Amino acid sequence: MSGKFEFLHPLPWTAAQTARDRGGKPLAWGLGAASKRAGVQFIIPKTGGRWFREEGPAEAGIRRYVDLLRIIAARTLQTRYRGSVLGVFWSLSNPLLMTAVYTLIFGAAFASYYDGSILRYVFATFVGLGVLQVFSGTTSQALTSIVANGALLNKVRLPYSIFPLSTVAANFFQFSVGTFPLLAIVTLIESRNPINLLALLIPVLGLVMVVTGFSLLTSSLYVYFRDAPFLYEMAVFVIWMTSPIFYPSALVPARVHPYLALNPIVSIVSSIRQIVLSRDWPDLHLMGASLLSGCACLLVGSLAFVFMKRDFMDML
Amino acid sequence: MSAIEVASGTLYRRTQQEMSYDLKRLILHSLTRRYKAPVRRRVLDSVDLVIERGEKVGIIGSNGSGKSTLLKVLGGILELTTGSVSIRGRIAPLIELGAGFDPDLSVEENVVYYGVLLGFTQSQMRERVARILEFAELTDRIHEPLKALSSGMTARLAFAIATDEHPDILLLDEVLSVGDQNFKGKSAARLNELWHEHCTILLVSHELTFLEAQCERIIWLQAGRIVADGHPADVIGRYKEASLGPRLVAPAPV
To answer: Which phi and psi angles does A255 have, rounded to 5°?
Structure first.
């Protein structure tokens, strides 16, 4: 272990981080920009600084943030799946079962919209359900994440966003070992084009951004409004019904179509379906639309989060 | 060089009565123009404080006087509304021990988890598990879930983790009143050890005798203001006088 007052050296943050990697003292509580030569210090500016202040020890660098994200996400997965042999694969049981149910009920009726093939209806429904499930599952868990950790935030200095974001990380880890490999297999079977497999990553990135934006939004709304889950349930239901998951979008009247575009998930589901199921090249317009949808949600969610986080500690 | 500096630190916190956590009511009240902006209450009132490195400072005051709030500001948990705080060195916050433990994880996993929350890396914590558990006298319970431990043991564990890697500044909130007699002695010994290494210690407590013996400076807070700041015997004497005063002139017998 290095000398006790090592942190007092005039290290900028990167160098200080390296010192920590070498086994030096962790510099957990300093602020990057304001860290002066006198050593680690955080200076809280006069009012106004509250708005632009980086939060918590995320100030100490991305490395610490990633460390926290990993350990909290791992804990989430660990407590969720303790003692179950199937572990994260349980997450597949939900979309698989629901695909089966929808196919039993609607499969025969809607097959004509899917080239008369029930199998294609199964695939299309599974894609939609997989996307919707990761969306609604993650955001509803994220909703309570900051409030649930309110006691902790009152005692240890942590970035607030670590809680919704670790929920996103845990759920997308699950997605990447559960739903995504299935999507990849279906892509190879249906499109017979490895390029589509690569292209698949674009709408999935859009999905990550949409989910992150919504998670930031819902988690911070819940800090202020404890009736948010009730309203959120309704919102998810609207998103669920307006996404053409188990019905073909051709059923929706043409007049209503433009409004469906307001649903941030629709372009993502359409893009993933197009890439996975069609035998054409990936549709760039749909891919662009899903990225755009992701950016919009992420922007709105982050702005709402930054605006609301000022008073978090007074409400927790 | 000073370890902690607070310059005219004032903190307003929003009270929670108007909003009562309800979106439906907020919308209704805005529509009917009955919406009132949330009230903010001043919990710290232009606090000026300079603490030199190595000082051992006790903070006293009645409940709700802002002692814990001050520690939270120093620990970076709360932000001042106006004024500035500057901290030099690594802070170990022991504001209420055991926050951040997960009762379902094992003792070992909790040590790593809590350590990462406090700012260490996972690999650093894995190296230290054995030493920490030894100090906390919990080595034989390493694989048990944390919920199997008593609250005193949990407090011992938290104390051991937070003070294992000697911090530069230690914030303590009523820590010493947990643990059995044996551990009290042990934690006091470790605090002394830290003191001799020029660790700065801030201690909030109601155990005036302990503070008088252990601290070299006492700060008395009342309604968010510093009323007195100085020599232990002197400040504690005045504090006792002020709080016992009304009782001494108790109601006359009927």
So the answer is: -65, -30
Cβ-defined contact of B16 to A314 (cutoff 8 Å): yes
How high is the ipTM of this complex?
0.81
Instruction: Residue A28: count other Cβ atoms within 10 Å of its Cβ.
Output: 25
Q: Which two tokens stand for residue B115?
A: 């350590």
Q: Do B93 and A153 touch (CB under 8 A)?
A: no
User: Which pLDDT score is estimated for A33?
Assistant: 33
B61 found inside a domain: no
Residue B145 lies in a domain: yes
Q: Phi and psi for A268 in degrees, rounded to 5?
A: -70, -45
Q: Is residue B127 part of a domain?
A: yes
* d(C-alpha A172, C-alpha A195), whole Å: 22
Report pTM: 0.80
The pLDDT of residue A67: 87
Dist. CA A171–CA A94, nearest whole Å: 14
Asked if A183 and A272 touch (Cβ cutoff 8 Å), the reply is yes
Domain with B145 in it:
92-167
Q: Report how far Cα B53 is from the mean position of its chain's Cα atoms.
A: 18
Tell me the two tokens of residue B176. Answer: 């010493």
Residue of A nearest to B24 (CA): A227
Is position B123 within any domain?
Answer: yes
**pLDDT by residue (tens digit) across A129-181?**
999 999 999 999 999 999 988 888 888 888 899 999 999 999 999 899 888 99
Sign, CA dihedral A243-A249-A253-A254, equals positive
Chain B nearest CA to A23, separation (Å): 8
Considering only CA atoms, which of B240, B215, B219 is closest in space to residue B228? B219
Among B53, B47, B130, which Cα is nearest to B88's? B53
Amino acid, res. A243: S
Beta-ladder partners of A30: none
Q: What is the CATH number of the domain that holds B98?
A: 1.10.8
Give SS3 for B94.
Answer: strand
- Whether A46 has its CB under 8 Å from any CB of chain B: the answer is yes
Contacts of A47 in chain B (CB under 8 A): 81-82
User: What's the domain count of chain B?
Assistant: 1
Contact A245, B40 (CB under 8 A): no
Instruction: Output the pLDDT for position A43.
Output: 36
Helices (DSSP H) in A256-283: which residue ranges? Answer: 257-260, 266-277
